[in-house]
Amino acid sequence: MKIEQIYTGCIAQAAYYLESKGEVAIFDPLREVQPYIDKADREGAKIKYIFETHFHADFVSGHVDLAQKTGAKIVYGPTAQPEFEAIIATDNQEFKVGDYTVKAIHTPGHTMESTCYLLIDENQKPYGIITGDTLFIGDVGRPDLAQALVSDLTQEKLASYLFDSLRNKIMPLGDDLIVFPSHGAGSACGKNMSKETTDTLGNQKKTNYALRADMTSEEFITELLDGLGVPPAYFPQNVMLNIKGYSSLDTVMEKSLKPLSPTEFEAMANQSEAIILDVRSEGDFVKGHIPNSIFIGIQGNFAPWVGALIRDVKQPLLLITPEGKEEETVTRLSRVGFDGVLGYLKGGFESWKASGLEVATIESVSSEDFASKRDEHSIVVDARKPGEFSAERVENALNIPLDNVNERFDEVPNKSFYLHCAGGYRSVIMASILKSRGIHNFINVEKGMSGIRETNVPLTKFVCPSTSA
To answer: For strand 294-295 and strand 317-320, is the pairing parallel, antiparallel, or unpaired?
Structure first.
């Protein structure tokens, strides 16, 4: 069977390209759809269907643009109510793509419209299943994202639906089926996803905690809900964009890619409510940046951090990028619905510096200097996730995860403190946010825990309790 996974690491998302006899189906496409069109053109094929597994929360899908550009039909599962033309499949409805068959299997639980697509080859043999956010490798989809759309839904009720979907619709299928999920490790749509992006269903039955044969519904619900963090603020906004539709990416790019001189950039920053977003490396940002700008480096999990920390996808943005990265930055912002870019600084930060305009810096020390200067009275703030903090931390450190900094400003020490994360990326993001709020009484620790670990700084580590008598 000719199927290709197209994986985008920065948002841990997988789209799929299925082709047979000159016909193509795309599953869960990214917003930049031209690569799918170009691929089909190269193969002398035509895109016939765009299958959506559900209304995505973590990214804006390319279904609307792709349908408009190709004439392909958008397909959703039962109960979906998009505000644009689409085929709403019935449970077990089949679609032909050349000699292949795509069978819609309604699997509510992650969301109520969630649907998996069974792929059947030219010999009528089931080959694989595109599971969306219903089943991941090592995990299943979180059941708390659809509550805002239906007033009487609870995460417990959704979890019970997911339990039934997995047991009654997925687990009875053949062990040799290949599982093709929509996400891998790093996505906020689950909590325990593997770095692997495909597996056999049989192996998942053996290794995935959520597919244990002896698991009761109550046990499933308890384990699934345990440790679920608050979903990122942009998730509901992305859901609504995927339901209602959105501006063409071509329009967004034309509007956003406006070069601004330092004088024009400064004037627009002063006259608008735009956030200045600096996407260079953390090292460059620490050495010099525009005052009150926010750092989120494009080399990291850029788009998810933008969505988690800036929150409103309608927020106007002004960009500072490495030269040549302007289009990539706008594209990656658009993947999570941030279409409000007003322009970018022409010539990058160097042009700002050359103009003699004000420059700010962040006080930083190496991990070695941190080790030599720190004493028992030093205050240390750790910006990592609670699980990372629990596993290993500087003695007496305070955990304020970057994810929660906007809600926990009242916990930021009012005395001088050291700030670190795992490798230096997240602490500089947090530092930029603190400085933009007028908080300057901190010193950033370069390389974070990865550097601190190599020094003599005392660490507290989690030790698994012994099970011996």
So the answer is: unpaired
Beta strand ranges found along 147-263 (DSSP E): 178-181, 199-200, 259-260
Alpha-carbon gap, residue 67 to 71, rounded angstroms: 5
Taking the C-alpha atoms of residue 7 and residue 393, their distance in angstroms, rounded to an integer, is 33
- Residue at token pair 């020490």: 413
What are the helix (H) ranges across 90-213? 155-165, 201-207
Task: State the DSSP H helix or E strand holding residue 369, giving kind and residue range, or none if neither.
Answer: helix 367-373
- CA 338/CA 402 separation, integer angstroms: 20
Q: What 8-state DSSP symbol labels residue 124?
A: S
Task: Give the C-alpha separation, 252 to 79, whole Å.
Answer: 31
Q: In the chain, where are the structural domains located?
A: 3-237, 247-354, 364-461
Which CATH class name applies to 3-237? alpha beta
| Tokens representing residue 138 in the block | 């090592």
Q: Do the domains spanning 3-237 and 364-461 agree at the CATH topology level?
A: no
What one-letter code names the amino acid at 368?
A: E
pLDDT tens readout for residues 230-286: 788 899 999 999 999 999 999 999 999 999 999 999 999 999 999 999 999 999 999
What are 121-146's pLDDT values in tens digits?
999 999 999 999 999 999 999 998 87
- Residues of the chain whose pLDDT is less than 70? 147-151, 463-469
Full-model pTM: 0.91
What is the rounded CA–CA span in Å between residue 283 and residue 262?
Answer: 22
Quickly name the fold that domain 364-461 has.
Answer: Oxidized Rhodanese; domain 1 (3.40.250)
> Could you give the CA distance from residue 226 to residue 159 in angstroms, rounded to a whole number?
12
- CA dist 134 and 150 (Å) reads 19
- In sequence order, what are the beta bridge partners of 126? 120
Phi then psi dihedrals of residue 126, to 5 deg: -60, 130
Residue of 151, 86, 139 whose CA lies nearest to 112: 151
Cα 200 from Cα 208, distance rounded (Å): 11
- 28, 74 contact by CB (below 8 A): no
- How many residues are recorded in the chain? 469
**E-only strand ranges, 124-167:** 126-132
Chain-centre distance of CA 223, in angstroms?
23
Task: Give Cβ neighbours of residue 120 (< 8 Å, ≥ 6 apart).
Answer: 100, 101, 102, 103, 126, 127
Computed on alpha carbons and rounded to an integer, the radius of gyration of the chain in Å comes to 24
Q: What superfamily does domain 247-354 belong to in CATH? A: Rhodanese-like domain (3.40.250.10)
Q: Please give the angle made by the CA atoms of 119, 16 and 202, to the nearest 5 degrees.
A: 50
